[in-house]
Amino acid sequence: MNSLTTVGQKIPKRDAPPKAIGAAVYIQDMKVPGMLHGKILYSKHPHARILKLDTSRAEKLAGVRAVITAADMPSTFRIGVMKDNPPLKTGKVLSIRDEIAAVAATSPEIAEEALSLIEVEYEVLPGIFDPIEAMKEGAMLLHEETKSNVLKLPWKLVCGDVEAAKKEAVFIVEDTFSTPWVTHCCLGTSGCIAQFDTNNNLTMYSNTQIPSLAQNDYIEALNAFGLKNKRVRIVQCVIGGGFGSKLDTYSYEYIAIRLSLKTRKPVKIIFSREEEFFATSPRQCTITKISHGCDREGRLMFREIEMVLDNGAYTSWGATTPSVMMLPISSLYKVPNVKYTAKCVYTNNTYSQAMRGYGNPQATFAIESSLDQLAEIAGIDPYELRLKNANEPGEVTPQRFKITSCGMKECIEEVVKRLNWKGKHGRGAGRGVGMASLIHVGGGARVYKSDGCGTIIKMDDFGKVDVFTGASDIGQGSETIIAQIVAEVLGIPIDDVNVINNDTDICPWDVGVHASRTTFVAGNAALGAALKIKSQVLEAAAKLLEEDPAYLDIKNGIVFSTRNKEKSTPLGKALRKAHYTLGGKMLMAEYFYDPKNENFDKEFKGNLSVSYAYGTHGVEVEVDKETGQVKILDYVAAHDVGKAINPLLLEGQIYGGGLQGVGYALGEKMVYVNGELKNGNFLDYKIPTAKDVPPMQAVIVETDEKDGPFGAKGIGEPGLVPTAPAIANAIYDAVGVRIKDLPITPEKVLKALKGKEKIG
Amino acid sequence: MNRYDYHQPGTIEEAVGLMAILDDAKYIAGGTDVMVLIRQKKLKPKNLISLRNIKDLVYIDTAKGLRFGAATTHSAIDNHDIIRRNYSALTDATSHLGSLQIRNVATIGGNICNAAPSADTACPLLVLDAVVSVVGPKGARDIAVDDFFQGPGKTALAHGELVKGLSIPSFGENTGSAYIKHTRRQAMDLPILGVATRITLSMKNGAEVRCRDMFCTIDSISNILAKLKEEELKIDEARIAMGVVAPRPMRAKKAEAVLTGKVVSPELFEEAGNVAASEAQPRDSIRGEAWYRSEMIKVLVKRALIKSMDRIIRPDEAIYPERLW
Ligand SMILES: Cc1cc2nc3c(=O)[nH]c(=O)nc-3n(C[C@H](O)[C@H](O)[C@H](O)COP(=O)(O)OP(=O)(O)OC[C@H]3O[C@@H](n4cnc5c(N)ncnc54)[C@H](O)[C@@H]3O)c2cc1C
């Protein structure tokens, strides 16, 4: 391909102006004629028997149109990954976010008041809030029909022979690391509007990040409600952030559907900020025991990890994050022998969900912290240890990932250079540097039977293009990227490309916004469709210009002959000519791209992704030894992205991810005490503010991935994966204390420093 | 569902009068505490009496000491050069309160009347010996700010009384003050602990205290203090106040006594910190653990004293020790 005009340019996000001026329509803004407002009553206790549930007073309140309880749901209907979650609970409640009744009323205020009129009597039961306790023999069972609180999930990966490697390793470290629940903090809270037509077909106004899968879920629900063979349409409003939180369907959506069916009116449910904190699913918390060994030269010989995950009371995608954790565990740096097991355990806590990185941040925190410990006892500079073991193109990892493009070494070198690592590492005295790397899927991830995305393109009489894609834009900028790709292929200005990505009635199937896959998969789908329609355009123009299509190209909306300057025509003219002719045609093309990646086999091996994304973060910190406060002085984030289709958006992903990682490292934690959330607000749940943004350099390393659209790989999640261990390692370098439990609060640092003082 | 009527009196008398006749009424200034409490259903007033249109509540007057109206916003205080120079502790508080948007509407009267143990302006006002002027149905009176705070959300205000303004005496040239807000974030955060100090210094031989270069080195603070010790800087008056360590913002009077009349030395500041910590009764909360708060009192008292001193010695300089924390 000759020089690029649109791809590779710093083009501002298309949705930025409407968002900035308040013109974007979020689910919160959405109104449907005749709409009612739904509200949900949650349990007061994390574990209790419901002795009495009386809704009669609520039903009598003026303006209330329906009150529903578990009795209104089919008794066997369950949602979630393990189908262990009834949308409305009866008998026993297992967590404080258990939904027990819901109201639809003519205003949110009336619905709220009605909730206060519902009388519930509980018999409070003792709860289990610690997964280690819950695993013990004879522990009370959360779900009585199960035999154990440990979920029946097969999380085990064995590559090579760890036991043998242990005997040969010269240096071995072992330690335990833990991470807390953290939450997505989407500015746009959860919400939906459920609406039925006269034939009981459902339209859901939604901010899901998985429209096609959600459609499937709702169809299942309608079947359960006795509505067979119905259509479901999902219309997405502008989505105010996802980060994984909207990767599943939740009770509130089924409650809205049920209330709508009962009232025959559209029903809207919008979460308050308080609900968004306690009633949505956070990133899974983990306890990770890890051991690493290397030979005398520092070559990694084995990695062994045992992990316990608090599953909470029900199961969403959080329980499946160990499958993605396997990625760094088996393949971050070259390590021939790997063993990993993970247990997900039911407790009376909140249940978890995907969140940017899908388990990778938790695993990488343990791996990269442990590697620094190993470097220390092996007497090797942590950066040299990493370089020595870095992944390389052409490698097949123990989990059978086929590494194509790989810029890990370049990323490490960039960090070393830009941070002045060699002058700064090992000085102590309150200042230090640390680094950590990452591997993530960068070319889709075949977690379902299909990892595909469909795209349709049509052109109008004036050379303007509509692109219908299955891929949702949840703020990450895919709309802009897809427009760039299509504009590049068609040789037209980007403003001539309109992207439609929010309606299952008109957009083709896509598996969802996850696994950093949209630029790669939806980008390839758009590329394929654009190439197809381009050849149609050239054929149409060929007739008009009387030129061989092989010698035609398009630039700036003009079709021209590459061998005869005289022959050219505006694109619109060629299109009109094709249209307004006897037997004419409108140009349309479709393309479905499904990457050639593999599902894991029974042993969790296989080439999950067509390509892999790499990156290294380096941090310089200053630690106040009297207060334990950590200040980030410098931050370098180098990412191998294949090709930057839009460097502006790409840097945005790196800054945003990095900052979310800083929050994970230094501030954020959902404080659950006996099953109750104690800091469900932005004052006490400490996400970084604009003033907390450290000086950050985003470094783009381009490795030109052969399967990527224009060479690109994914970048959505990687930005926050290595942040926490890089910071933890820098703190260790600065003051010699290692914090193994996130977040790294001043209290923990000071306590560790004081402990060190006493020993030292 | 909470519905209320919103009243907009134009004068102090009108506001006090409305308060006397209306049911379940609450004054509202910037509303940054009131509206939050209403949303949390901790407050369910039937009437809100807005103080925003009362001109007599908004003024800053530095003719004699410092006087300002209750409805003066934190931003207005923050942008006032004389306050910054002579009453630095107050500016330290207003410049880090909430965010710019909050500071542009929230008032200093609202901050003290809300009487949170974490209220940022409370400690500075305590060390600056502020006096609160109030008016109510029974007339006007003055309350020393130390008597004003009575507990979490509790003040000395009688029913219907309104804070008109505050006044702070003028301190001599050799006085400096500082407030350190210890937080996890750089903005939009309440203090885990707040410490304010004010000291007045004199030289033994009556020489000029100002414009010395002691703090203009990269020497460690303890070395700087050790050098100052040789100069025999005497502390004539000292105030220390602490927030979030007791049900109300409090003075550390024993620690103040430790300092008064003594010559500045590293040991003295250390001792003042330790004594202040012994006067506090910090608690464990999700915002901070008690042991940590105690430790921080020791550190922050020391640092605030140094900062106060720096402001006497180099009144026109940016604060050099800021480099360190
Ligand atoms: C996002 C956010 C961040 C914040 N950050 C901080 C912070 O960092 N530090 C901090 O200290 N506070 C903080 N606050 C709390 C609040 O902004 C301050 O306490 C502020 O000074 C309150 O002033 P106001 O004018 O808004 O008070 P209002 O909410 O109007 O009133 C507060 C109370 O004082 C009473 N009142 C107000 N004026 C008078 C008067 N003249 N006479 C008698 N009673 C009166 C009211 O009846 C009410 O009880 C924050 C609040 C928010 C929402």
Outline the fold blueprint:
The complex is a heterodimer of chains A (760) and B (325).
Chain A: H1 16-21, E1 36-42, E2 48-54, H2 56-60, E3 64-69, E4 92-93, E5 99-105, H3 108-117, E6 119-124, H4 131-135, E7 156-159, H5 162-168, E8 171-179, E9 191-196, E10 202-206, H6 211-224, E11 232-236, H7 251-263, E12 267-270, H8 273-278, E13 286-294, E14 300-312, H9 321-331, E15 337-346, H10 360-378, H11 382-389, H12 408-418, H13 421-424, E16 431-441, E17 453-459, E18 465-469, H14 478-490, E19 497-500, H15 518-545, E20 552-555, E21 558-561, E22 568-570, H16 571-579, E23 588-593, E24 612-623, E25 630-640, H17 647-666, E26 672-673, E27 676-677, E28 696-701, H18 723-735, H19 746-759
Parallel strand pairs in A: 1-12, 10-11, 14-15, 18-19, 25-28
Antiparallel strand pairs in A: 1-5, 2-4, 2-6, 3-5, 7-15, 8-13, 9-10, 9-12, 13-14, 16-24, 17-18, 17-23, 20-21, 21-22, 24-25, 26-27
Helix pairs in contact in A: 9-10, 10-18, 14-15, 15-16, 17-18
Chain B: E1 5-7, H1 12-21, E2 25-28, H2 34-39, E3 47-50, E4 60-61, E5 66-69, H3 74-78, H4 81-86, H5 88-94, H6 100-105, H7 108-114, H8 122-127, E6 131-136, E7 139-144, H9 145-148, E8 149-151, E9 154-155, E10 162-168, E11 175-182, E12 193-203, H10 221-231, E13 233-243, E14 250-251, H11 253-259, H12 266-279, H13 290-313
Parallel strand pairs in B: 1-3, 2-3
Antiparallel strand pairs in B: 4-5, 5-10, 6-7, 6-10, 8-9, 11-12, 12-13, 13-14
The structure holds flavin-adenine dinucleotide (FAD).
